[in-house]
Amino acid sequence: MINLKLMRAVVQRVIRASVKINGNVQSAIKTGLMILLGIEDSDGPDDIQWLSNKLVNLRIFNDSAGIMNLSLRETGGDILLVSQFTLFAATKKGNRPSYIRASKPDIAIPLYESLIIQLEKELGKGIYTGVFGADMQVEILNDGPVTILVDTKNKDL
Q1: What percentage of the chain has pLDDT greater than the value 90?
Q2: What confidence score (pLDDT) does residue 87 get?
Q3: Domain 8-144 class?
Q4: Structural element, H or E, at residue 143
Q5: Residues 46 and 112: beta-carbon distance below 8 Å
Q6: Do 29 and 50 touch, CB atoms closer than 8 A?
Q7: Which of residues 5 and 135 earns the better pLDDT score?
Q8: CA-based nearest residue to 141, from 11, 37, 13, 10
Q9: Residue 75 known to be catalytic
Q10: CA-CA distance, 79 to 127, in Å (whole number)?
Q11: Average pLDDT of the residues in 32-60
């Protein structure tokens, strides 16, 4: 088995989503995408570019016929992006997950910030975020439900 290194995103089409820290709303969106992001050490600029393009162009919003045929770019929806190292939990051994594959902050933060900048550039507007490394409470009202896994090295998912 090949151990692929990848940037991983859980993408949820939402009616609304928010992030609270210490009981205070950090960010909130209405219609759009809630994106939970996991980063590994081998991720880089190519992963950022590919993932950003994929996220803003995924055709997962309904058109006038009720068919998922529109992208976030076309609908004008928002993004709430939250870094989540637990997306790389290894659960093969025992009952306590290992997070060894997740990047440490010195590598992950610059990549996370680069993705924010790239998404804003592609959408032509600001995106909403959590706070890297903070203890956050995320509230999501998933629309559909539509939840899609995207990763930058295994593009067949």
Answers
A1: 67
A2: 81
A3: alpha beta
A4: strand 137-151
A5: no
A6: no
A7: 135
A8: 13
A9: no
A10: 5
A11: 90
Name the one residue in this structure whose structure tokens are 């950090």.
Answer: 26
* pLDDT at position 67: 96
Catalytic residue among 31, 75, 86, 152: 86
At 70, give phi and psi (nearest 5°). -120, 150
68, two tokens: 């998922």
Q: Which two tokens stand for residue 119?
A: 């998404």
More confident position, 87 or 147: 147
Query: DSSP characters for 53-107?
Result: HHHHH---EE-TTS-EEE-HHHHT-EEEEEE-GGGG-B-SSSSS-B-TTSPPHHH
Return the pLDDT at 31.
97
DSSP SS3 for 129:
strand
Cβ pair 88, 98 in contact under 8 A:
no
The token pair that represents 118 in the structure block = 């790239």
The pLDDT of residue 101: 78
Q: Which two tokens stand for residue 20?
A: 């609270």
